[in-house]
Amino acid sequence: YYETIFEPIRQHGGMITNVVGDAAMAIWIEMRPEEKRRMHACISALDIERGVCRFNQASPFTQLPTRIGLHSGQVLLGNIGAVDHYEYRPVGDIVNTAARIEGLNKYLGTRILASEEVITQLDNILIREIGKFLLVGKSKPLVIYELLCRKEESDQKQRDLCLFYTDALDAFKRQAWYEALEKFNTIIKVYEKDGPSLYFIKLCKEY
Predict the structure, then answer these.
(1) pTM for this model (two decimals)
(2) Chain CA centroid to CA 44, Å
(3) Which residues pair with 70 in a beta bridge?
């Protein structure tokens, strides 16, 4: 399993900095913000998801769902520790926020989520805005996006899902609860287990 997730990270220029249990953290480092690094991280995430799907198909009795969170910004990178134990890894709010984004997948039924900071000006990946979320430890909500696939690999059904979902989310943002509920329910009729739509259906009913 680790080999499956490590290979795309290394192939696309990432550095694995930490492994705890079944979780791994990787970073793409530049001295200045650079679009290329963010793209490499996103492509790596898509390749990890594809690799894990193959892994699960080959191991039907050991299904390992993988959730990925991506965030971008300044981090402190260096030897963290004391006395005779040091670890070379990043620390700071960006790291914590990426972990919170990863955890959000569990509630939304998604696999790869990224912040707006990550996906800005990345045009060759099919994404959809999932909505605004106030993550634990944050004072302001973040706009969260789902990465679906490379655009050249997308099919009409995936592209239609993005359009229908954007329309439903717009109704939700306007607090038109009944309209949003109807639109999200329409998505479920076609796409059945679309996690974000199911999540917002529940919220619409509560509101």
Answers:
(1) 0.92
(2) 12
(3) 114
